[in-house]
Specification:
With 394 residues, the protein is mainly alpha-helical. It has 17 helices and 9 strands.
């Protein structure tokens, strides 16, 4: 869209004697590449001081910037510090290709100037570009932005982060159930620090951030640390807000959930969070409240339902049916009394009950779940499981 503006700058540089038309053919350039010494410019600058009239009529050409032939270019980088390169190592870079299209190096400098960019902040893999861009700013007589090159993110093995490390787009981390707040916090801390603070809100980041505390060394992306941080944000997000964030995922997974089930989930949300590091794991846990009956049982849950466990559950059904105090403490007292009479440990005693109410062998406390479900729904789940195993509750 701005190619005309970019071309105009290249042509003005030719008029001002800061750039020149180069008629070197592709074959000549290939031969020069073969002869070039490592670290030195490839092009021999043969057209730098020749008149274009010496070229064959109609011959194609590129426009190259006249780089200084001696001295040095110094960049005072806000992260990397003072960096110097000998001008003899800089090639007369192409500004305009033979077909008239501008190069990236020309376009980005012109756009930065026109947009009044004051700071160029980017990965340190672009550091070499800074010296060439500096000379282009200088040739146009423009103010040079403050360059800041930040380290790249590496994988756990110390190599540049790539797809082989599992590096993917942010949308994939969103699909994993990572909260935006956690992702921003983690990425910020990969290359910047504020004392020992690990959890940094968006508001704190805006207030505290400065370039002086950006590290010089590459950071290593650690998925486990990201998950740990995400778990923190899950636990510290208000339940109503967290439910809104998880709702699209939950509705897709449990489309038949009733209004009553959504109320159960909201009431039991805090009990699910200690076992979840992502929204996806939270959705897995939410099945306790949102699944359609009969509950699907895990393989471990099925293995738990021994004849002894079913006999205990059958006896527990009568205890629960007669319970007059359906509170956390009331239910716990009733279960403990039942276990003592039978000479069992409480955990062993309620193993079948846990399967009946959750479909799994691990869950939040049953004495939290049962008051949320209520007596009728609790007994309904126990009844359905006993019937499925041909044990009729009395």
């Amino acid at each position: 869209a701005r190619a005309d503006r970019h071309r105009a700058v290249a042509e003005q540089l030719v008029v001002d004697g800061q750039a020149y038309k180069c008629f070197t053919t592709p074959e000549e350039l290939e031969a020069l590449r073969a002869q070039a010494k490592p670290g030195m410019p490839v092009h021999d600058r043969q057209w730098r001081d020749r008149h274009p009239a010496e070229a064959p009529p109609g011959a194609p050409y590129v426009i190259r910037l006249k780089m200084p032939l001696d001295g040095e270019t110094v960049i005072n980088d806000l992260v990397q510090g003072q960096i110097t390169v000998q001008n003899s190592q800089l090639d007369d870079m192409v500004l305009l290709r033979a077909d008239g299209t501008p190069t990236y190096m020309l376009s980005v400098v012109v756009d930065d100037h026109d947009m009044a960019i004051t700071h160029v902040i980017r990965g340190d893999d672009h550091l070499n570009n800074a010296f060439r861009q500096y000379q282009l700013f200088a040739a146009m007589g423009w103010d040079v932005p403050q360059f800041t090159h930040i380290p790249l993110i590496h994988g756990a093995d110390g190599a540049k982060l790539s797809k082989r490390h599992g590096a993917v787009g942010l949308d994939a981390y969103q699909e994993m159930g990572i909260l935006p707040e956690a992702m921003c916090n983690y990425l910020l801390r990969l290359g910047w620090s504020h004392g020992d603070d690990e959890v940094i809100s968006r508001e704190q980041a805006i207030a505290w951030f400065d370039l002086a505390h950006v590290g010089k060394s590459p950071a290593r992306f650690d998925l486990n640390k990201l998950l740990h941080l995400n778990a923190h944000y899950l636990r510290h997000t208000p339940p109503a807000t967290l439910l809104d964030k998880a709702r699209p995922l939950l509705q897709a997974r449990y489309p038949q959930a009733s209004a009553q089930q959504w109320q159960w989930l909201e009431a039991g949300l805090s009990g699910l969070l200690p076992r979840a590091k992502t929204l996806v794991e939270l959705a897995d846990q939410a099945g306790i409240y949102l699944q359609t009956l009969p509950l699907a049982l895990t393989e471990k849950a099925e293995a738990t339902l021994t004849p002894e466990a079913l006999d205990t559950l059958h006896a527990l059904y009568r205890v629960l049916g007669n319970a007059s105090d359906w509170s956390h403490d009331g239910l716990m007292a009733a279960m403990q009394a039942f276990a003592e009479v039978g000479g069992q440990k409480l955990g062993t005693c309620v193993a079948g009950l846990r399967v009946a109410l959750t479909g799994d062998t691990a869950s939040p406390s049953l004495f939290e779940i049962m008051p949320i479900l209520g007596q009728d729904a609790t007994l309904q789940r126990v009844t359905m499981l006993l019937h499925s195993k041909n044990v009729a509750p009395q």
